[in-house]
Write a structure and sequence with these properties.
Elements: H1 19-27, H2 30-52, E1 66-81, E2 84-94, E3 100-107, E4 116-122, E5 125-131, H3 148-174, E6 176-192, E7 195-206, E8 209-217, E9 229-234, E10 237-243, H4 249-256
Antiparallel strand pairs: 1-2, 1-4, 2-3, 4-5, 6-7, 6-9, 7-8, 9-10
């Protein structure tokens, strides 16, 4: 923002902020999009893994009836676990009611010479069966949780970004405007739009006493183009401060519009 300090007032607090401006402050940060990417990836992975996970295994309690069965087909799938190929085993079995049934189980390579296997089935759902020691689907149900990891990481990141946005909303509504200067910058390994995020330490005066605060931004050129930059801080805790020019451009226009 490039207006004189006289054109900006700290009177009439709290300031009335349009709802559209609030949304831009909170969700206009590019990091919001960056947070959604792993969340979307996590949802996709969870959906894919869930379709291949053996959730029926939770129905088996360990005391199911067993019968002998025969392997009728064995084929290699495209899936692997612990660097080992997963195979699909089609088997046939007959329950005490005399009905011949077929089922499918999955596991890594089993050396089944005669093709005879032990089959366990649900007493009240005899069509649900598996070869003892194998899974009913390609993967353990806990594999589906792996897809949740990027989702949770993105969600935590999103919460952090939104909290920062809400703090900026509070500053725009209740903060005291002043001027200050950058005293040091440290580049991080994080980049936004191919720009490195910097940890910026800046200083300003409150009641003629210097106050030092810290913020993070990738908009370095905006906060270093003047000898003194517009800063807005919380009167209750002046270390909670930020550069006006580090916020969305709509914030600068808001103050330029006659505060």
């Amino acid at each position: 923002m490039h207006t004189s300090s006289e054109s900006i007032s700290n009177m009439d607090l709290p300031r009335a902020i349009p709802s559209g401006l609030k949304r831009r402050i909170i969700f206009g940060n590019p990091l919001v999009i960056a947070a959604f990417i792993p969340m979307i990836v996590g949802i996709i992975l969870t959906t894919v893994f869930a379709s291949l996970a053996d959730f029926k295994s939770f129905k088996f309690k360990g005391n199911e009836p067993r019968v002998k069965g025969s392997i009728t087909e064995m084929t290699q799938t495209n899936s692997r676990v612990n660097h080992q190929n997963i195979y699909k085993y089609v088997f046939s079995y007959k329950t005490p009611d005399g009905i011949a049934r077929t089922g499918i189980s999955y596991d890594t390579w089993w050396d089944i010479n005669d093709g005879v296997v032990d089959v366990e089935y649900l007493a009240d759902e005899p069509q649900t069966a598996r070869i003892v020691g194998m899974r009913g689907s390609e993967f353990s149900p806990f594999v589906a949780l792996a897809g949740l990891m990027p989702f949770l990481i993105g969600l935590i990141f999103l919460i952090i970004v939104i909290r920062k946005g809400r703090k900026n909303v509070y500053l725009v509504r209740n903060g005291i405007l002043t001027e200050g200067k950058v005293i040091s910058m440290q580049r991080t390994n994080t980049r936004i739009n191919n720009r490195y995020v910097h940890i910026v330490t800046f200083q300003f005066l409150v009641n003629n006493a210097p106050v030092t605060a810290v913020t993070r931004t990738h908009l370095i050129e905006r906060i270093t183009d003047e000898a003194k930059e517009k800063i807005i801080y919380d009167s209750n805790d002046p270390t909670k401060a930020n550069f006006v020019d580090a916020m969305p451009k709509s914030v600068r226009r808001f103050f330029e519009g006659g505060m």
